[in-house]
Amino acid sequence: MIIPAKNPIIEIHDLTVAYQTKPVLWGIDFTLPKGGLIGIIGPNGAGKSTLLKTIMGLNPINSGYIKIFDTSIQKVRQRIGYVPQRESVDWDFPTTVFDVVMMGRYQYMSFFSNKTKDKAIAMHCLAKVGMDALAQRQIGQLSGGQQQRVFLARALAQEADLYFMDEPFAGVDAATEAIIFSLLQKMTKEAGKTIIVVHHDLQSVRHYFDWLVMLNMHLVAVGPTHKVFQPALLQKTYGGKLTLLHEVENLLQKKNINPREHC
Amino acid sequence: MLSLKKIIIFFTIENPNIGYVTLSILLLTSSAALVGTFTFLKKKSLIGDAIAHAVLPGICFAFMLTGTKHTFFLLLGAAFTGFLSLICIDAIITHSKIKEDTAIAIVLSVFFGVGTLLLTHIQHAGNPEQTGLNNFLLGKAAALLEQDVWTFGIISFLIVITIIFFFKPLFIIAFDRSFAQSIGMSITFFDFLLTLLLVLAITVGIQAVGVVLMAAMLITPAAAARFWTYKIKKMIVLSVIFSITAGLLGTTISYLYPAMPTGPWIVLVVSCIALLSFIFAPNKGIIAKKMKRDRFKKKIIVENTLKIFYHLGEKDKNFFNKRTLDHHFTQKVSPSQLKYAIQYLQRIKCIQKNITPSSSKAIDWFLTEKGKAMAVQVVRRHRLWELYLSTYLNIPSDHVHDEAESIEHILTEDMEKKLMQLLKNPTKDPHQSQIP
């Protein structure tokens, strides 16, 4: 079930992505609406993070194309914000909470510019996630939930219109989860932002997301959560490996063929 | 023999050549440390080693082609094979199943092998110019000349300026590559820039340190500096200070003993600095860590002793009874530990000595109000944890005691409150003992 969005903020057309020659996403084609909290769900290895990164232009595309704000990603980088997976960085890196959040202001600063305003914004964003008291703390001393909140504060400091978040709720305590969710809700409901979230926990899906992308290497369903979040589609997303697809995939890898290679 | 006069000559720089040598050392060690810090933070330490070894064939080729030992040509050759080695490593990783560490090892040894081969060939070819070329193996700072200072000065200046100007993007990329990419930074450009700086730093550095040990000049100062600070800017400054210190000391030593090559001495000094940092640095050093562990161990001993007072008091229904340090105590705590705990508890006025004159030799002790309060806290945390384990984790009540023995010392006041809330202010633990 693929429900098109009116007034889409993102359009994805016939997208195929492969690592080396191993395909990860097959023929993805859908649109996402402006405003609201959008979830991407699917089993491990379904290509959720890959999809997120590809939309942001961080992965090479094998075929198809993507439009954001009706143009290419390169032209609208200033309008997007990103929260990578918490585990993707080394938290023992010699830096402070504040300096990580200041990274979110990089696009607004130049070498000689006055940074007073940027510093104030960074502090304000830290306050929003309840971490302002820990601004000068070494990042290695933070708990998992606090690390996630630092990442969120950095994204807030980007002052973007469209946010991509890779598992912001993974491995955080209940209190942090509540803080993050209420913050995301405020951003979408009050400020009209669009937030795309890779998500793992099926229990909270119905409660959290307005719109849902169900993925398992191919697109299973896209649409308003109340329409697509239903047993039959869940079964299709999570149940049973797509044996034939996997066999073809292995064959392609073995024969070193690009899935979209034509004669 | 080592003479004071020689040292004085060295440091007063009466001999102009010494001045050049010192200045060169200063420039090349600091630029190596500067670039090395970023390589270290990007966890690419081995790449530096590969490049350092791979510049040797370049130097030899340059010499064979030009027939001179002019620094500029040699550096050009060095940079060329340095880059070539990186291209080879990348090619091996992308086009084969071989992983990065293996690829580095292969390229490093092949390039260095070729380099050694060429060097031997040159030495036997009979060109009188070749004397001193083997200094590139282990470094000879004394061979540095006035013209070298200019070359090094310019290159080091370029390195410092580039790093200062691009500090922010280099820092962001080192910490979080995909975020950097997402805000439109060109990862390819900055990776190339850092590699270029690395090759430059190495090619100038090998004159003093030699190709074999150059990696140490890149990485060791950064590794040592990491022990002292968690702020990247401080870390960079520290690693530059460390490497300059090592450079100057190493050069002094090799000046005083001319038979000694400079490189190994510089590396030895910088390694000593790293070792000292590893041992003595606050927080991260092993002594600081051991002290922290010891403090915690002492806390456990003291709290366990208090607990014994409490348990005995619970049995007698009087917590302030006088106790001799009998088998009740020695069963749980060793005599030396007990001695420490009693002294400590007396000092912080948790227990008091029985002062009534008595004929018996045994000394009696009893809890003060403060001591009882502390004992209550430990016992409460122990029993709360037992109850938590059996209620929430379904662990049978005869298995929860040992676990609680260690957790009781770690729990904080905040956690205790949460436990009380979660367990709804319980009064009995799983063994039906009162939770105080």
Looking at this protein, list some descriptive labels:
heterodimer, A: 263 residues, alpha/beta, Rossmann fold, 3-stranded antiparallel β-sheet, 9 strands, globular, B: 436 residues, mainly alpha, ABC transporter involved in vitamin B12 uptake, BtuC, Arc Repressor Mutant, subunit A, elongated
Structure description:
Chain A is an alpha/beta fold. Chain A has a single domain (8-255), classed as 3-Layer(aba) Sandwich (Rossmann fold), CATH 3.40.50.300. Chain A is 33% helix and 24% strand. Chain A has 9 helices and 9 strands. With 436 residues, chain B is mainly alpha-helical. Chain B folds into 2 domains: 14-284, ABC transporter involved in vitamin B12 uptake, BtuC (Orthogonal Bundle), CATH 1.10.3470.10; 289-422, Winged helix-like DNA-binding domain superfamily/Winged helix DNA-binding domain (Arc Repressor Mutant, subunit A, Orthogonal Bundle). Chain B has 19 helices and 3 strands. Chain B has helices at residues 4-12, 16-41, 45-66, 71-95, 100-125, 135-138, 146-165, 167-175, 177-182, 187-209, 214-226, 232-256, 262-280, 286-316, 327-330, 335-347, 369-392, 400-407, 413-422, and strands at 323-324, 351-353, 364-367. Chain B has a 3-stranded antiparallel β-sheet. In chain B, helix 3 crosses helix 10 and helix 17 packs across helix 18 (400-407). The longest helix of chain B has 31 residues, at 286-316. Chain B is elongated, with a radius of gyration of 33 Å.
